[in-house]
Amino acid sequence: MAKGYGQYCPLALAVELLGERWTFLVVSRLLDGCRRFNEIHRGVPKISATLLSTRLAQLEDAGLCQKMPAPNGHGYIYEPTPACLELDPIVMDLAAWGQRWSRDLELEDLDPGFLAWSMSTRLDASAMPDGTTVIAFEFHGTPKGFDRFWLMKRDGKIEMCLKPPGYETDVTVSSDIRRFVEAWRGFRSLQDEIASGRVKVEGPSALVRQVPRWLMGSALAAFPRLKPGAERQLFDELQVGAQPNN
User: Fold this and answer.
1) Do residues 93 and 195 both lie within one domain?
2) Is 128 helix (H, G, I), strand (E, B) or coil?
3) 155, 128 in Cβ contact below 8 A?
4) What is the CATH number of the domain that holds 63?
5) Stretch 109-130: mean pLDDT, rounded?
6) Same domain for 130 and 215?
7) Same-domain pairing of 86 and 111
8) What is the pTM of this model?
9) SS3 call for 146
10) Measured between alpha carbons, how far is 210 from 171 in angstroms, rounded to an integer?
11) How distant, in Å, are the alpha carbons of 9, 72, 114 from that of 61?
């Protein structure tokens, strides 16, 4: 663990643990329900596997998670402890603060791996057709160029796939990644972006019409942007456009 602050202040003692790089995000994934190492890694895709192992071990030593054999006997799972669960409202409050006040996004923040994971948690399986449905997402304007992933509903659950899932694609969604992320975060209207074709949805017309109902957007989209800047301007313009005509 990094050198502490040398203060008995409870806040300083908490930040000694939670303020280390990646630690708070790993805690957030545990609170999101990720239990296996690979599940946690998908939710924090830019951390190395070695460093993730270190952070999980530190959280275990600090009493925030327990590593135990998986119920099916294959591998291990990480269970959050009561001390970790107490952080849930703090994590949510901090995330909401970030939606309102953090800096505007830059190109290097537009990580398709994290977008794939976050979208997999906010796809409404109950609104999708029975059986297996595969949505391909294709984004340009990413830091490394073109990127693609798939979200699949199978057996009532959503699966995230970074490689072709072995099933025929039913619908393809393509967009500039910044525009899509801005819509996903609530700074643009995702329905308007789809209706205009700026976010393109291709497939059978019966399915294409349903796609806006499947994509629920970020859980933080309801929090208004308050920090001045480009994202605040987008949010303000969206609110003006949403006002009913008198």
Assistant:
1) no
2) coil
3) no
4) 1.10.10.10
5) 95
6) yes
7) no
8) 0.91
9) strand
10) 10
11) 21, 25, 27
End-of-domain residue from the set 101, 117, 132? 101
Question: Quick one: pLDDT at residue 243?
Answer: 76
pLDDT at 144: 81
Q: Are 35 and 78 in contact (CB under 8 A)?
A: yes
1 domain-assigned: no
Domain total in the chain: 2
- pLDDT over threshold 70, residue 179: yes
Per-residue pLDDT at 1 exceeds 70: no
Helices 23-31 and 88-101: crossing angle in degrees, nearest 10, is 120
Distance CA 19, CA 7 (A): 15
Stretch 89-111: mean pLDDT, rounded?
Answer: 96
**Averaged pLDDT for residues 54-68:** 97
- Tokens encoding 9: 């202040």
CATH code of the domain in which 193 resides:
3.30.1050.10
**65-87: string of b/e by CB count within 10 Å (b at 16+)?**
beeeeeeeeeeebbebeeebeeb
Contact 67, 55 (CB under 8 A): no
